[in-house]
Amino acid sequence: MDAIRWKGNVLSLLDQTRLPVEEVWLDYTDYRPVAVAIRTMVVRGAPAIGVTAAYAYCLAALAGEDLDQARAVLAASRPTAVNLFWALDRMANRAEDCGGDPEALIAEAVAIHQEDVEMCKAIGLHGAAVVPEHARILTHCNAGALATGGYGTALGVIRAAHAQGKVEMVYADETRPLLQGARLTAYELVCDRIPATLIADNMAASLMAKGKIDLAVVGCDRMAANGDFANKIGTYSVAVNAHFHGMPFYVALPCSTIDLSIPDGSGIPIEERDPSEVRTLYGVQTAPAEVEVYNPAFDVTPHSLVTGIITEKGVVYPPFRENLARLFGNP
Ligand code: MRU
User: Is the pLDDT of residue 66 over 90?
Assistant: First the structure.
């Protein structure tokens, strides 16, 4: 399964706002509508928006447009996932080296895309090693093939563990307000025939209390140097509930999602989205039109609630600040 394609100098995105009801691919030859697609979540998920922005940067180069301007417009699309800025920085560095040559930039974007899939597969294998036999795994939001270059981070762990015959059941939180768990994770699990049960977000604690979940694995949008991390709103509740029930809680991510320039989670910018996402449920009004709404897209989970950080280089355990620094070759 994939959600991002590049062919004949055209970027195609699977419109994730219409899944699972319709599979519609949208084509882009201009970077500006791609920035809109990121903001409106036609494409979403930290690694996926990084890959998409890299290709959009190529569209600007092909059109002979100002690359700094394109970088600024794309960077303004969503604030939390660091992969967006990581990918744009990498493209801008390449542009400096190659004088903005579109073919060289396309090769760089393709490399970012392919490396992301390879990192996900490595994350999957490292993560599968911590999954016990007959595992019942909880996940939140969508950190799957749709959210990455392909295969997924948290869902990559689940895919690899399933391939090893270890997965008894995956519980997918539906993930209000935009239902990435119900619409996207459940879709991926059903397509791959991985045993899946969809639950409303407020059901996870009761399953844990009944002893029906063995571990939780989630994705990440940005991790600070001490292991605090931002992920889809509701991740923090999963971590608190897992801690209370003595259950392992893992976060899976490529190193491109780690931002060592931020010392702890308090420095991670958190996107606030339109109130209509909470007042409505897929276009249907579910609350008074005038009611106040709080709608942060992400929350920050403190590293003290994390059992292990699953990366493409291996699983990192506490003390996280020291061990994450070591991952990047810093003593
Ligand atoms: O708002 P979204 O759908 O972009 O949020 C996505 C998540 O929170 C994912 O868990 C995260 O980006 C990791 S994707 C591998």
Answer: yes
